[in-house]
Amino acid sequence: MNENNEETKVIVTINGNENNNEADKKTVVVGMSGGVDSSVTAYLLKQQGYTVIGVTMQVLPPEPIQQQEQNGGCCGLSAIEEARRIAFKLDIPHYVMNFREVFQKNVIDYFVSEYQKGRTPNPCIACNRYVKWEALLQNSKKIGADFIATGHYAEIVKHPKTQRYTLKCRDENKKDQTYVLYNLTQEQLQYTLMPIGGSQKEVIRKIAEQIDINISKKPDSQEICFIPDNDYSGFIQRETTKTYPAGNFVDLDGNVLGKHKGIIYYTVGQRKGLGIAFGKPMYVYSIDAEKNEVVLCENDALFQKTVYADNLNFMGIEKIEDGMRLQGKIRYHHNKAWCTVYIKNESELMCVFDEPQRAVTPGQALVLYDGEYVACGGTIK
Prior knowledge:
Blueprint: E1 27-31, H1 36-48, E2 51-58, H2 65-68, H3 77-90, E3 94-98, H4 100-116, H5 123-142, E4 147-149, E5 155-158, E6 165-168, H6 186-190, E7 192-193, H7 201-210, H8 232-240, E8 247-250, E9 256-260, E10 283-288, E11 293-297, E12 303-314, E13 324-329, E14 337-345, E15 348-358, E16 365-370, E17 373-380
Parallel strand pairs: 1-2, 1-4, 2-3, 4-7, 8-11
Antiparallel strand pairs: 5-6, 8-9, 10-11, 12-15, 12-17, 13-14, 13-16, 14-15, 16-17
Helix pairs in contact: 1-7, 4-5
């Protein structure tokens, strides 16, 4: 409880409406990871009058006992046990859904394939679209749920101009997660509730303290859930049972600078871990998988204005009109920047930023915002 013994409250906004008179008639499946955000989400929805069912998604093989304490992320056996404990505390049913196959195909295989192509994927974005939403929503409907809910920091609203479902970005909220949710579909948004979307993390932790579920101080997960030691290259080699040959570091003119240890060890913008002293700071400019070359440059060459993206998902807007003025983000922890957007074809756009952006990385997401609303996004080429 806080010092004044006053209860911290969150106004539960359900897809743009603060009051939902039919809440007591609706059933919602909450994706529970055993963490603070999803646990408070379940609590708030129950308080709102929903019939709440807790579901934890099992996406990884069972962990060895010695790893269960170490791997405190959202996907392991320890997460299932914690979610079950919290569901019991909240007096809601709890189930486990096995999504290992869909996770392997859409997240792990995708992650490995992108690195083999010299690209740097964001597996959390793929997981959100295909596992935490597509698979969860389909299976939740089978058990009679009207909605699914998650503990993400994003608000589902309708774009005031187009009336399409979209996500509202709060720049002042350091936990804003609209970037990693840009590729959700209209149907997925329509049947999703995010009751903590407009709240600050500190408020959610206070609620967790008040309902006494003993997780208010649990740290946020930082690493990729299926690579808890952050050894990406080691994981890829184990997953593919392949070794990746050494090749040449080259400069922008193609001159050989030395040997690299395999393209899976590098990403655009990287400086540390190159393994060679060049006499001046050098950075990864690009990765050519076909030639097995890693191109290096000095810092100034990392900046560019023009970015291409494909695999587009339109959220707040239905299409791009040539010359549209939007704001773009080229990575999660990055400020939005003004840009002019042009459509190349049905599945590709060109974005020209007013100011050069540093280390634009193929495989990462380009997310475009119309004011405070997610407009669309795609994968950087």
